[in-house]
Amino acid sequence: MESSSAKLTERINAAAQWIGGRTESSVAELVRWCDQNSWSMDSTSLRSMAAMLIEDFGRVGVQFDSVELPELKLIGDSEELLRKPTGPLLVWHHNVSSKRRILMMIHYDTVYPPGIEPNRCVRMGNRLVGPGTADAKGGIAVIKLAMEAVLKFGLADGVGVSILLNPDEEIGTTASSEAIHAMVGQFDQALVFEPTLPDRSLVANRKGSGNFVFVVRGRSAHAGRNPQDGRNAIVHLAKLVPEITSLHDPDVGVLVNVGRITGGGPLNRVPDHAAVQLNVRVTDADAMVRVQQSLTDLAQQFCQDDFRVALQGEFHSPPKRVDAVGREMQQAVEQAAKFAGRSVRWSDTGGACDGSKLAAWGLKNVDTMGVSGDGLHSPTEFCEVDSIAPAALTVAALIASFAGQEHASQET
């Protein structure tokens, strides 16, 4: 009599053949998705993208739900947060009543505004070049292909599999974070489909990331008649910036990048407003608390001589560190990848993603289960076409292994 593990291996091998034959159709679908703009700040484009995904995933045959989200809350050049509409949160469920469940998650927003060039995909041999091909619509292609294989070959018997696509990861997940947080307790583990690193290694540890703005308010005056009555906000900000950058200390894993400065107006007027926006990366939670306090202290220190300084912002993504439970999940990914002929390597990165939030909320995950590629957030972004099928097969085999563990626990 054939063992259950042998039967499972047989189904995975059959899925491997089927997935391999679906690569070109997945590429064609990915091209359609990438040719549709889905800039994080454009709710109209996001809703068009969502409609396309709803239609295409509708053919997979799993329960669907769309969740309307509150407005985005973003830092700007004033003390008030900017508020903008966004797209819906898209959720699909299979075996939703199962005791053991796994979540597959990635974002469908991109960093490219409408009209930016190039705004269409170009196939160049093994490379598909275009906006979002790797980050992260290529990951959506992997999810869909893997889910189709899981259903076709019965690889998720006894376990639940859900798919979640959010519209705001590239700008901090400020609208969807609360809804996602409310869902994480339903799952045992998660897979996040950010692209691998350029050398095809998967990410282990991640830095935390936060965006902040200092807003300086001075007092306007005529630059010729009574400049002494003014309080030049730009000059005051210029004194503040070196204090901010002094927090930059790569030796202890703290990275501070001053990314935007605004202020002023007519040249014959003492400017009464200036602002500086910055990004901060940290390696651990202690540094996150320490830097946040240092920024708060600076804002208070520079409230002097009739100047007001306000600080807005937060760490939107905490540091992610691999613990013993995380290492067990890494090992499961390594075993599943063998079915696809992959040898998994792990590397650390300074980049942030939603996997960091899931981990902080107690949901263990591996967050680079998508395609391989490079050039993220640039006109040369690409995914490697030959990475789609192996990534999908790895996921299918991992879900099958998860289901096998559930059957084993029921038998005992």
TrEMBL record:
It comes from the Bacteria. Keywords: Carboxypeptidase, Hydrolase, Metal-binding, Protease, Zinc. Its cofactor is Zn(2+). GO terms for molecular function: carboxypeptidase activity; metal ion binding. Its EC number is 3.4.17.11. It holds the Pfam family M20_dimer. The keyword Repressor does not apply. InterPro entries: ArgE/DapE_CS (IPR001261), Bact_exopeptidase_dim_dom (IPR036264), Peptidase_M20 (IPR002933), Peptidase_M20_dimer (IPR011650), Peptidase_M20A (IPR050072). Residues 206-301 form the Peptidase M20 dimerisation domain. NCBIfam families: PRK07338.1. This is Carboxypeptidase G2.
